[in-house]
Amino acid sequence: MKQPELLAPAGDLEKLKVAVLYGADAVYLGGRLFGLRAGAGNFSEEEMAAGVRFAHEKGVRVYITVNIFAHNSDLTVLPGYLDTVRAAGADGVIVSDPGVVELVRKFHPALPVHLSTQANTTNWSAARFWEKQGVSRIILARELSLDEIREIRERVGVELEVFVHGAMCISYSGRCLLSNYFAGRDANRGDCAQSCRWKYALVEETRPGVYLPFEEDEKGAYILSSRDLCLIRHIP
Ligand code: SF4
Q: How far apart are the CA of 116 and the centre of ligand 1, in A?
């Protein structure tokens, strides 16, 4: 059986080094533009190049996230940013927006494109579609069951990646407006305030201020957020 690649997030240069030194096969990171982790430290151009150098010296691959859903104005600066990513020595880019996929394929056809989980690939036909677009790896939607992943694996040749740990959205990966509405922070531009994880209460309309008891577990009740992913026990 092929040993899967263990890929870890690297929010900044220090975290990248920790991930590399503790055995990640690959890391992914965001530059200051076009990523979905606005809250993380992120990498300047110099840090990106230094991070790639450090990782490559240890035989670790580096993928750069370019996975926002771009607006027209983003597209004018995108080609220059892709040049920077390429010059830094990235082993691939993680992209969600079909328009960005097309531009990466046009300007840097040799740069591997990994389709972000944000693209919500939930079935083998969609996976086949993206394979035909030249995507070399699909990071599947987090909402899939193991059987669904297995069937997609059987039907497409493209590399597949799955999340084994971390936050789940109550909507499909970032496709909700809670954060935009409550905090003016756009989840699909990397700035989610995680509003679904705030504490909400159940109130009957004629009794304002009276919070009805609502308990899920000893940590409390989170009626708008889902259970997060933790598959450590499923990995030999
Ligand atoms: S508020 Fe919650 S469900 Fe909405 S995008 Fe943020 S993490 Fe996802």
A: 16
